[in-house]
Predict the 3D structure of the following.
Amino acid sequence: MALSQKTKETLLGPLNANNPVVVQVLGICSALAVTVQLKPALVMGVAVTIIVAMSNVIISLLRNTIPMRIRIIVQLVVVAALVTLVSEVLKAFAYDVAMQLSVYIGLIITNCILMGRLEAFAMTNKVWDSFLDGLGNGLGYAAILIIVAFFRELFGAGTLLGFRVIPESWYVANGGFYENCGMMMMPAMALIIVGGIIWAHRAINKEEK
Amino acid sequence: MNTNSNTYTIVYATVVVIIVAVLLALVSQVLGPRQQANVQLDQQKQILGALKQDISNCDDPAALYFSLVKDTLDVNGHPVYVAVIDDEPKFVLKLKGAGLWGGIGGYLALDKDLNTIYGANFNHESETPGLGALIVELPFRQQFEGKHIRNAQGEVVSVAVLKAGTQAEGQEQVDALSGATITSTGVSDMLKANLAEYAEFLNVKRCCGHCKGQCEGKCDHQHEGCEHHHEGEACQEHCHHHDAQEITNE
């Protein structure tokens, strides 16, 4: 299936040039909270992608019927319902992950990316475009989460997705020379990594600005 | 249609909210039993952890749980899980306390002398990963094994979690986690507070496990290996050890 220029832009733009996290600087709070390990970051990324795409579709379907005065409330109700659904499903089918993500699944409701996309895109665009936009933004958010979690888990715990990457024998405790970076476990370090990504992103995309 | 009239707005809001409410109620009803089962299974896994069972390769932890845990006693609303491992009774107490960011909890398995710790398991809601969250890991938990919750006089004094180099007064201790002082203190406080809650269970006058069959009246002499001997005291009604032995014999 060949994607038209506009479709491509809608879907792929948020992955790079218009990334919700590193360009629009939205959704930072959860990006700090769930990126200590890769697994919760992956689940969070998938959850947000599903919720943004679905809520974009629903709001886009309803966009001509929503009374302007209560549109934000209607958007919130839709998002809250979807978030609750995802949270319930996780508790029933992936209890461990649900416990790990704890309040952050619920807090997707307050993720600025969602409200931002609904208000800026879904309210004025067709269903299919809105779906692609939601998908793109969710994936753009997930991509940053995964990059941050990759560095934090690798240097903070020496593992990736729970598998040991840095051999046990390297550690000082086992007579080696290596020690985990405790800073990586702290939310502050996630902010520094996000800052680093923004720096790199700006440097690469300089010409386009 | 005028989508900005008051009537339309109110009707619209009502309809949306009702649809969402019905949908969520339905989902909650459908998934409820599954979620309940998950919560229960999680608790069983934690108790198995306190009983030093490796469940990482266990296909059916629930079956293992029911093969080990024979009974649940109630002490003023606090549960005591009575398990039997290698024909020896173990008593698992439930712990609940506060860490740095949120609640912490756990299970403490005691040997039949109600003094020696057989195993411990901890959980937490939101402790810092890599620091406070390490209380759930084996290296920290294993420190508790073989420690005694009583002092030389037989009083329950709990086990202190202290940083290496400091010495606890009149109680045994384990090393705290570096970088997680408040979580470590939380574990220490949780043990102390919860063991106090279980005082009725732990401090009840009871004869030793060797008294089986002799408990009808009074303990007449101290048996070998028996730490709590209450000469001449009635013990029949509170003989938890006895209970567990009967269970073993089943």
Summary: DSSP finds nine helices and two strands in chain A. The mean pLDDT of chain A is 85.
